Amino acid sequence: MSKILSHLGLAMRAGKLVTGDEIVLKAVRSGGAHLVIVAGDASDNTKKKFRDKCHTYNVPLAIGLDRGTLGECIGKAERVVLAITDPGFFRMISKEMMILSEVEYIE
């Protein structure tokens, strides 16, 4: 798990990660998002919205971790949704997610 969190922090510092509901949706629609991560403790409505949108635009989606952990690893307050906008970071993070069981949903 620590590898995923450190990769997310590195992506944030490199400017290859966006956060926030509207910004992530814009990245998904424009094709800029390579991976969307939604906090496991997000509302059911938020999970459904991103599950549907990512499915429509063929963007991988991971639901897991909690909002406090997501925010802490990128140096921000609690975050519910993040999007990786770089293919290299996407490969690194998704590879680690496949190993872990803390992520409850990966599509």
Describe the fold and architecture.
The chain contains 5 helices and 5 strands; from the N terminus they run H-E-H-E-H-E-H-E-H-E. By secondary structure, it is an alpha+beta fold. It has one domain (2-106): Ribosomal protein L30/S12 (60s Ribosomal Protein L30, Chain: A, 2-Layer Sandwich). The chain has a 5-stranded mixed β-sheet, sandwiched between helices. The longest helix has 13 residues, at 2-14. The model has no long low-confidence stretch (mean pLDDT 89).
Brief digest:
The protein is α+β, with helices and mostly antiparallel strands and 107 residues long.
Task: Set down the secondary structure blueprint.
Blueprint: H1 2-14, E1 17-19, H2 21-30, E2 35-38, H3 44-56, E3 61-64, H4 67-73, E4 81-84, H5 87-99, E5 103-106
Parallel strand pairs: 2-3
Antiparallel strand pairs: 1-4, 2-4, 3-5
Helix pairs in contact: 1-5
Biggest sheet features: 5 strands, mixed
Helix-residue proportion: 40-55%
Mean pLDDT: 89
Q: Given this structure, which CATH class is correct? A: Alpha Beta
Query: Which shape, going by the Cα principal axes?
Result: globular
Structural category is: alpha+beta
